[in-house]
Amino acid sequence: MDAFYASVEQRDNQQYRGKPLVVGGSPNQRGVVAAASYEARKFGIHSAMPSVVAIARCPELIFVRPRFDVYREVSAQIHSIFRRYTDVVEGVALDEAYLDVTENKQNITYASTIARLIKAAILQETNLTATAGISINKFLAKMASGQNKPNGLTVILPQSAEAFVEGLAIEKFHGIGEVTAGKMHSLGIHTGADLKQRSLFELTRHFGKVGHHYYKIARAEDDRAVEPNRVRKSIGAETSFAMDLRSRAQMLHELEQIAQIVEQRLEQHSTRGRTLTLKIKFSDYQQITRSKTIAQYTREFDVIFTTATELFELIELENRSIRLLGISLSNLENAKQTQVIQLPLFAYSNSGNY
């Protein structure tokens, strides 16, 4: 879906149409942007950005509190459209899904035909636009879906797959964030073609287990199936910093921002958790996790932030700097009814320049 939460708000409120709008907490509440309209994105505003930074970039910005019950209702309506064509639907979030239409209920030959029919039905029945990416595997379909937004449709044919990947800037790869892209640049990897030249041994030496994934996607390969019944084990968020955090005040400030995002995601998916895990990666790439199980299920910001802070205070920093912080909640209340989603990374510098 195109700027889903913001588009729903503009659809339902005529006074918001054509104006820069974000869904999320207001600046005086130290809130975080959950979604930004395309008008707001022109100012460099994006999801997970602190609201105070967003309002500085666009003083006339409109802030709207999220209505997750409405977004869930619209998402269910869209998924019902998907299931007219296939039951092999893997929800990634309320606004995104993978569909396997190799065999489909209407025996339509071309995936592009199905995509056009689905897009038309979504527009007619919800008055919202969607963008479709079509290809031979998940990675390529995801990359295609980002090529022509909003209201676009892009097909990457099998015979074009490798050339497409080879010509892609490394920072455009799904799953490669700003920090990883920077490390790849330092190794002389700037495009998919550069990545393809590196051996599996070299990639795993520099990037660990994920190096196997980089090796495959450089060759346009991805053997992950569309899995409609996967169960979510946790919900969380993490921030990878372009510049390492060095002061305790900075670290606690970032933990607070991450806790707000986790609260939003738990609310979005109508669930609560009992086991909180704090994740820290130091500047030397050593990674540690600390967990605590609380007495009751929660999705309250105060509980999430307080528990994360308690775990943080138990860690001996010894003047070490931090390159990544993350918070997740597992042992979810309604895990059997929920699906796995991919939780995005976002990266920025200590100076606040996004």
Automatic annotation (TrEMBL):
Keywords per UniProt: Cytoplasm, DNA damage, DNA repair, DNA replication, DNA-binding, DNA-directed DNA polymerase, Magnesium, Metal-binding, Mutator protein, Nucleotidyltransferase, Transferase
Cofactor binding annotation: Binds 2 magnesium ions per subunit.
GO function term, MF aspect, one: damaged DNA binding
Signal peptide: none
Location (main, coarse): cytoplasm
A single Gene Ontology CC term: cytosol
Enzyme Commission numbers on file: 2.7.7.7
Catalytic machinery residues: E96
Reactions accelerated catalytically: DNA(n) + a 2'-deoxyribonucleoside 5'-triphosphate = DNA(n+1) + diphosphate
Binding positions for Mg(2+) per the UniProt entry: D95
InterPro entries linked: DNA/RNA_pol_sf (IPR043502), DNA_pol_Y-fam_lit_finger_sf (IPR036775), DNA_pol_Y-fam_little_finger (IPR017961), DNA_polymerase-Y (IPR050116), DNApol_IV (IPR022880), Rev_trsase/Diguanyl_cyclase (IPR043128), UmuC (IPR001126)
Cofactor requirements of the protein: Mg(2+)
Domain UmuC: 1-177
Residue(s) at site: Substrate discrimination: Y5
Gene Ontology biological process terms in this record: DNA repair; DNA-templated DNA replication; error-prone translesion synthesis; SOS response
CDD domains in UniProt: PolY_Pol_IV_kappa
Compartments where found: Cytoplasm
Pfam families: IMS, IMS_C
Record flagged with keyword Acetylation: no
Functional note: Poorly processive, error-prone DNA polymerase involved in untargeted mutagenesis. Copies undamaged DNA at stalled replication forks, which arise in vivo from mismatched or misaligned primer ends. These misaligned primers can be extended by PolIV. Exhibits no 3'-5' exonuclease (proofreading) activity. May be involved in translesional synthesis, in conjunction with the beta clamp from PolIII.
NCBIfam families linked to this entry: PRK02406.1
Record text on subunit structure and interactions: Monomer.
Family in the record: Belongs to the DNA polymerase type-Y family.
Protein name: DNA polymerase IV
Record gene name: dinB
